[in-house]
């Protein structure tokens, strides 16, 4: 059983990006710059946003932080995004999700300029991916592909089963895997799927993106499968300093012995998301420069 270390793959991505950022600065006289907008005080969102800032700093990327109160109006948020769309010193814009109640995430995402949509959430970015002409691709599924590539896990002709149909992970994951050149046969399962274990047991590659701790158990996987765990769930643990620990959507201890390869949590897909955001920010800056 091989452990697919997102940490190792992310480090490889960061090494490449550090060099690219230095070269970019030399060529163009400025650095790729990401604007991160956080509305409200959600602790998990605050921690994600801090991780994004840290990544920018470590790569020598520019970083602009906007922390707005939870009672920010839709109009105020859209005004800020319009400003950032027009700001030539900003190449990528990210609005941290979920947004507080009262703000419409679809309208907010649609207001971000497609050229700066480093999250890949804009309907135009999603459509471009679906027709096989990707611009910016959602970071988490892109991170999964990067892990598969790094470990030379072929997808052609394989049956990839994705559990979860979110716009951020499940659906773009399916689009990526089914694309020409990737050539997987893809099944998407969700909460209304009947007899889920009978389908997940058919998977050569099983991707768990449900958001429920330890949801995938050993009776749901066939021997020798590749398991990709996208889940990042906080569960209470009084023995930890923070009072919680992170677990995936897969019951790792139960499932891992049956796998050919598996991603751990933490240190698997999670760390790839920010690495791919940085890659997209580099791409946005390049497109702006050219
Ligand atoms: N919330 C959870 N994951 C993400 C992400 O990848 N991007 C944004 N903007 N918000 C998120």
From TrEMBL:
NADP(+) binds at residues 164-166, 232. GO terms for cellular component: cytosol. GO terms for molecular function: methenyltetrahydrofolate cyclohydrolase activity; methylenetetrahydrofolate dehydrogenase (NADP+) activity. InterPro entries: Aminoacid_DH-like_N_sf, NAD(P)-bd_dom_sf, THF_DH/CycHdrlase, THF_DH/CycHdrlase_cat_dom, THF_DH/CycHdrlase_CS, THF_DH/CycHdrlase_NAD-bd_dom. It catalyses: (6R)-5,10-methylene-5,6,7,8-tetrahydrofolate + NADP(+) = (6R)-5,10-methenyltetrahydrofolate + NADPH; (6R)-5,10-methenyltetrahydrofolate + H2O = (6R)-10-formyltetrahydrofolate + H(+). Catalyzes the oxidation of 5,10-methylenetetrahydrofolate to 5,10-methenyltetrahydrofolate and then the hydrolysis of 5,10-methenyltetrahydrofolate to 10-formyltetrahydrofolate. Belongs to the tetrahydrofolate dehydrogenase/cyclohydrolase family. This is Bifunctional protein FolD. It comes from Sphaerochaeta halotolerans.
């Amino acid at each position: 059983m091989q452990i697919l270390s997102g940490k190792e793959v992310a480090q490889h991505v960061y090494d490449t990006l550090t060099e690219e950022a230095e070269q970019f600065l030399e060529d163009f006289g400025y650095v790729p710059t990401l604007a991160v907008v956080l509305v409200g005080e959600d602790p998990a969102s605050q921690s994600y946003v801090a991780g994004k800032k840290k990544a920018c700093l470590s790569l020598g990327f520019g970083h602009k932080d906007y922390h707005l109160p939870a009672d920010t109006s839709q109009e105020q948020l859209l005004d800020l995004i319009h400003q950032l769309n027009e700001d030539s010193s900003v190449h990528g814009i990210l609005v941290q999700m979920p947004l507080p109640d009262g703000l419409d995430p679809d309208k907010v995402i649609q207001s971000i300029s497609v050229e700066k949509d480093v999250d890949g959430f804009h309907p135009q970015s999603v459509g471009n991916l679906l027709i096989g002409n990707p611009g910016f691709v959602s970071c988490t599924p892109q991170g999964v592909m990067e892990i598969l590539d790094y470990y030379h896990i072929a997808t052609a002709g394989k049956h990839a089963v994705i559990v979860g149909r979110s716009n951020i992970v499940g659906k773009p994951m399916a689009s990526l895997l089914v694309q020409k050149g990737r050539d997987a046969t893809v099944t998407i399962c969700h909460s209304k799927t009947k007899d889920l274990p009978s389908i997940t047991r058919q998977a050569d590659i099983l991707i768990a993106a449900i958001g429920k701790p330890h949801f995938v158990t050993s009776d749901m996987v066939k021997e020798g499968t590749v398991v990709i765990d996208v889940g990042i769930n906080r569960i209470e643990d009084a023995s930890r300093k923070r009072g919680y620990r992170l677990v995936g959507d897969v019951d790792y201890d139960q499932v891992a012995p049956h796998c050919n390869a598996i991603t751990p949590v933490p240190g698997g897909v999670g760390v790839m998301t920010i690495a791919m955001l940085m890659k997209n920010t580099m791409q946005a800056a390049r497109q702006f420069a050219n």
